[in-house]
# Entry
Amino acid sequence: MKIYLDNAATTPLDKQVFEAMTPYLLEYFGNPSSLHQHGRLVKKAIESARSTIATLLNAAPNEIIFTSGGTEADNTAILSAVRSQGIQRVITTPFEHHAVLHTLKLLEKNNEIKLDILDVDSPGNIDLQQLQLLLELHGPSLVSIMHANNEIGNLNNIELIGDICKSYGAVFHSDTVQTMGHYRHDLQKLNTHFLAASAHKFHGPKGIGFIYCNNDIKLSRLLHGGGQERQLRAGTENIHGIIGMAKALEIAYNNIDEHQQYIQSLKDRMIAKLSNQIEGVTFNGNSANAAKSLYTVLSVSLPQNATDQDLLQFLDNNQISVSGGSACSSGNASHVLKAIGHDPLKDTVRFSFSKFNTTNEIDFVVDKLTELYNSIAA
Ligand code: PLP
# Structure
């Protein structure tokens, strides 16, 4: 049995999404910028996909701009705030994705911004008093805080953070790559200027995402060239990707409560079984706290094993796909685990679940791990 528990890295494409996409690869291949019927038909489909996404998020269609994924959306949001709004102070957290952190560090290095990184406690909770203090002290700022962390699953209260930002007149960007399609985002209620999303994290295709850019703020273009996306993002549109992403988000929203409940039950089962069967197992950050963590992610620390067996290799040998930290930083020490003072001697495994996982898979994985740990103890 091949088991895939790395859904925070990417999710399998939903078959219905694939079916919605294929006509736009085979039949409707026109360039949406072309004025003839082949182009017009595709342009109409893109605008319909945009409206679908906007309606699900309670946003206006012109607030959704298609990008190549989460990385481009994060980069665009940050560069827009700095270059269009003239913002020179940025506040963020130590456990943002590198799409945010590396962009901000580069701007800092180029003396375009002054960067403040908020303190976090050992489970990874952000110091919101410090956020308020910095906003009071520094005036016009960009706050970039992710909704859920991709390695440990910590959920941040972006409703509250958005309200704080609003009260200080700050620009707020939230990387919602891990939560889009997993939680409802109501953009009439959430005080945010930017959100970043990536379709392959919610059973859509890879290489497509979007940035939500509130109509109150101006987007600065990252790519220069053609006039696509109302001059905001040059380059011929990824039509089948856009169609697939809208379909994937629609499916996600149609079943959001049911899927949340089901996936949370898989996670709870894994937490209970691991705690019962393996001595010394701990859960990183707020990972085991249902109210404070993303239900699709469980970050586990296991005691150092007495054999030379690499834990991830052991799982891979048993046809179980998981990550150590995040897929993008595999091989490097995790900046997220460092930020929460994680014991580097402990092995960390990130299990991440989807609607396609089963209780049998959870049981199989925990039993395999138990075998390994029992064999060490014996
Ligand atoms: N932000 C977060 C929180 C992520 O988890 C990821 C991908 O893992 C990204 C941004 C980047 O998304 P993409 O790889 O689709 O560009």
